[in-house]
Every structure is written in structure tokens, then in C-alpha cells.
Amino acid sequence: MKSMMKILTRYVLSATGVTLILLVINFAALAAWTVQAGKIAQKDYSVSQLADSLTKSDSVYTLSESLKNKIKKQNQWAMLLSDDGNVSWSENLPSDVPLKYSVSDVAGFTRWYLNGYPVYVWRHPDGLFVLGNKKGSVWKHDIEMPQKVMDNTLVWVPAVLILNGAAAILLALLFGMRLFRSLKPLARGIEDMAEKRTVELSTNGLLGDLAAGINKTSAQLAKQEAALNKRDNARTTWIAGVSHDIRTPLSLIMGYASQLENDPELPQSKREQAGIIRRQSQRIKTLINDLNLASKLEYDMQPLRQDSVALAPLLRIIAADFLNSGLSGSYSINVAMDESVQNVLVTGDEELLRRAVSNLITNSIRHNPKGCDIKVTPEKGFGNCSLSVSDNGVGFTHEMLNNLNYPKSSVELKNHGLGLTIVRQIIKAHGGTTEFRNLPEGGCTIVLCLPVSNKD
After folding, report:
1. Confidence grade of residue 243 (pLDDT, cut at 50, 70, 90)
2. CA dihedral for 290, 296, 300, 302, sign (positive or negative)
3. Residues 257-279: pLDDT tens digits?
4. Which regions of the chain carry the CATH code 3.30.565.10?
5. Beta bridge partners of 372
6. pTM exceeds cut of 0.90
7. Does domain 204-302 have CATH number 1.20.120?
8. Three state DSSP letters for the chain
9. What percent of the chain has pLDDT over 70?
10. What residue spans in the chain does CATH classification 1.10.287 cover?
11. How far is CA 31 from CA 140, 159, 170, 281, 295, in A?
12. Which residues contact 257 (CB under 8 A, 6 or more apart)?
């Protein structure tokens, strides 16, 4: 469930990040709006500047031509009210604006609108200066706030922001927990499928369709697993049965062939033919045993008698057995090891390890009919021991190396047959690795890596 908690944590952190991003975006938008509003409202002059620029000379009020042009360009108008409420001067005055005002009229439009025109006022030595904008150009509203509230703004604004952030995180956590509860059965179902257990999830709720898909997949996998097990059991049973049925007649053939081979009354040619029959029968028996062992290793049916195996004596015995079995003089087997590996113990089944090394030596002999030098070299590493079997023969082709190091199936080993397949299976069953390489100077080497025994 660690992955589920990771999903929930990332969900909450993502929601928090989204909240912060939205706050930043909102503040940026507010700032942009404020700046834009300021640019729109910005003028080349203010009502106070206009009022101060309006001068009187010989009972006539004058305003500079530049300011008049700017007022017209902005679709504005201006007037000066005398103390008795009459308009004593005006510029670009609309026809629906009165020319006389009472005190109550002045009080009504001073801060807001005059006949729908937004207006601004400024005190003038000769009365009240009024600047008007066109209708619908300015929105004006009375905003009033107690001073105590304004004094606490620096406290309230951060508090509101923190409250909003906390609320967003809490909501994200609540929704995340709901999602977590919905995903938890799905995660458990996927884990069960990985362990090859049948899954039956409830298809109700938000993720019902996904649960139904997992149920369907689980049923299909279970069906396929049953079919594969049935096929594998049938194949293993067939191989074991055939191996058992062939051994008895094959033993009789080998026995009679051996008698004929050693019968002095037969001609030499007949005895040689009997020897061929015996050797080929022995080869068939070996192939049957290899096939049976490969099948058992493939399906973990071969019991491993794990023990601490002294590697150096085992390699010497294997080499001696080959040299004493009538091996041609065109072949040599050399076991090269230094003092550091003399007492190395590896964990494994001694008979299977003997079989693996023997198969490698046999492979070198079989594929180098003109002879070769075979070298067996163990080396101790950190927590493991590597064992290489090398020869100076023909080596592997590029295709062989690819199939040997990355086999899709044992069939792709072609003429290298079951021998190397069994080597790989034996080393894999021991928790080790197998690597096949060609040597730069010619020939090839197979490197086996095995765990070192704790008793070493």
C-alpha cells in the first residue's frame, strides 16, 4: 500500500500547488486590472488643474485653447457655478444640463452624477468648478468602511488567504481520501493478479468500469494459466513417460551390442558395427536424460540438494574423468587456479554443478573435432565466484552468441542443443548467471557466476 499513500500524498500536494498557482494568477489578474483601470482613467489633466487654469479678466473667464481642445477630445464638459447657483462660465456644455442650481441640487450631484453625467467638482475663487464626463463613461459608487476595519486590513487579508489555503488543502485531502478508498481495492486486485490469485472486485462506485476490466483480465489470466499448466504438465509427463519407456529396451540394445562387440568369434567388422550401435545407444540414452533434466529444471521439478561444495577438488575430478576416459591427444584440459580459490566453497547441488561444467567441456570437444586446448579457471569475487571454461577452437558465430546470451527458447540454440540449455538452467536454479563470449585471439569462453557459501 506504499504506492497508494504515495498517490494520495502527490494528489494533496498537487491540489495545494494548484491552489497556490490560482492565488498567484488571481493576484496577477487583479494587479493587471488595476493597472489597466488606472491607464484608462489617466488624463492629461485633473479637475483641480482645470479650475486653477480658469482665469477672469475684465469680468470675462478664459481657458487656454489647449485645455479646451483636450476637453472636447475627451467628450467632456465644464462649467463654473457662482455663489448664487447660476452658471457664470461653461465649455462644451450639453443642452440637458441646467443653468441654475439650488444648494440641494449642488449637494445632490457633487459626489455622483448630474442628469446622468459623472461629474467632478473643485472649489474656485468665484464659486464651484464642475467637470463632467459623457454618460456611461465612469462608474461611481459610495464605499464606506469603519476605520477600525481598515486598520485591521493587514491582519485580515493574510488570515483570509491562509484560511482559503487551509480550506483548499482540507478539501483536497477529503477528495483524496475518497479517491484513495476507491483505488485501494484496485491496487490490491492488481497485486493479487501479480501473485496469480483470482480477483473479484466490486463494480460499484466511481471506478466500477475499471474494476470490471480488472475482473475480466483476472479471469482471462486464470484461464490462460490453467491452460499453460495443463500443457506443461502434459509435456512433462509425456517426456518422463517416454524416457522411462525407452530406457528398458535401450538398456537391452546396449547390453547385447556390448556382448557382440566383445565376442571374439565375430569378425572384426561385425564387432566394430556392434561398437557403433553401443556408442550411439549410449548417446541416445544421454540425450534422453538431458531432455528429462531440462524439462524438470524448466518447471522447477528438479530438487536441489543445496550444500557447500568445494570448487577446486570438484574441477580437478571433472578434468581427470575426461582425461582418463580415452580423450584424444589433440585435446588438453588445464585447470588453472591460484591460492585464493583453493578453499572456496560455493552453495549448490554438487551433481548438477558437475553436470554443468562437464557439459561445457563436452561442448568444446564436440564442436572442435580437430582438437583444442580447454582451460577451466575459477576466480573468487566479492560475495560470488566466477568459473570460466575457455577453448582456442572455432568459437561462436554472431547469431549463436545472440541466441546463447538472449535466448527466446531452447529451440533457438540449434546445433548447440540441450547441453548449454541445461548449463543455463542449472546456474539459474542456483541463483547465478551465465555469459557466452568469443575471445579476441580466437575461441570462446563461457563464464558462470555462482554465490559463495557463507561457510567459506
Report:
1. low
2. negative
3. 888 888 888 888 888 898 888 88
4. 307-451
5. 331
6. no
7. no
8. CHHHHHHHHHHHHHHHHHHHHHHHHHHHHHHHHHHHHHHHHCCCCCHHHHHHHCEEECCEEECCHHHHHHHHHCCCEEEEECCCCEEEEEECCCCCCCCECCHHHHHHHCCCEECCEEEEEEEECCEEEEEECCCCCCCCCCCCCCHHHHHCHHHHHHHHHHHHHHHHHHHHHHHHHHHHHHHHHHHHHHHHHHCCCCCCCCCCCCCHHHHHHHHHHHHHHHHHHHHHHHHHHHHHHHHHHHHHHHHHHHHHHHHHHHHHHCCCCCCHHHHHHHHHHHHHHHHHHHHHHHHHHHHHHHCCCCCCCCEEEEHHHHHHHHHHHHHCCCCCCCEEEEECCCHHHCCCEEEECHHHHHHHHHHHHHHHHHCCCCCEEEEEEEEECCCEEEEEEEECCCCCCHHHHHHHHCCCCHHHHHHHHHHHHHHHHHHHHCCCEEEEEECCCCCEEEEEEEEECCCC
9. 85
10. 204-302
11. 20, 20, 28, 95, 76
12. 274, 275, 277, 278, 281
- Is 407 or 52 the better-scoring residue by pLDDT? 52
- Mean pLDDT, residues 132-152: 80
- Measured CA to CA in angstroms, residue 266 lies from 203, 252, 262, 355 at distances of 82, 19, 9, 37
Fold exhibited by the domain 307-451: Heat Shock Protein 90 (3.30.565)
Let me know how long the chain is.
Answer: 456
